[in-house]
């Protein structure tokens, strides 16, 4: 009876011990499997993010973060195929895009005018500072509400396209005073200078400036005289960063665009031009400078 009891106890306890050991082993295996899967998922996600979202390269001491070439080319292609009447041709988009890609990061990009390409410029200047200036306060508010990532400010132009020659003459007469090529326009009374932009716009060292506004389709339209003049002053008044600023003037076939471009951005700085786009490279100047162009005759020649 005693032996039977002891054998019975052995039979009853043995399965229990095995079950308890198996349970602990299963929990241990589950624990290890969970952390293994978590580690693999993190590793895969990190690799995908680093290869698909952005490409980081180091060039001449600058770390530049850009979109992959395939993404940029796709954006340019579809933007150029738009049904919008006023969209830029592919050649102009590509020229501006190429300059943005070579810009040190973060790139400072200032655009006069809200256009069909607004979202494109924001996307191409990935991780950079992109600011838009437009004369239509209602449209600016609409864009900002619809696309909160867009940084846009409205400005009141006091010029008329029909006054272009008078305004250029006035700027020349005041070139040593209010219309100096190097100054903080925030405190300027120059008729062509924009002095009511947000304070920080005057403090940024702009790498690329695009003049694609305001409107200039009729005599009383503001025209782009002030935008071009302001772009020239901002480029020459930089405090740091790259001493050169790429300034693009769209609709370069227009009289205002070409005349004011050569007058205030200087014909000698024109590195490339097509029927629709003028590309200037403007260097910063000494604060005592009183001439927009190193070759003083270049502007006059353009005016004649």
UniProtKB/TrEMBL annotation:
One of its GO terms (biological process) is xylan biosynthetic process. Coiled coil: none annotated. Keywords: Membrane, Transmembrane, Transmembrane helix. It is a single-pass membrane protein. It comes from the Eukaryota. Pfam families: IRX15_IRX15L_GXM (PF21729). The chain crosses the membrane at residues 25-45. One of its GO terms (cellular component) is Golgi membrane. It is found in: Golgi apparatus membrane. PANTHER family: OS11G0490100 PROTEIN. This is Polysaccharide biosynthesis domain-containing protein.
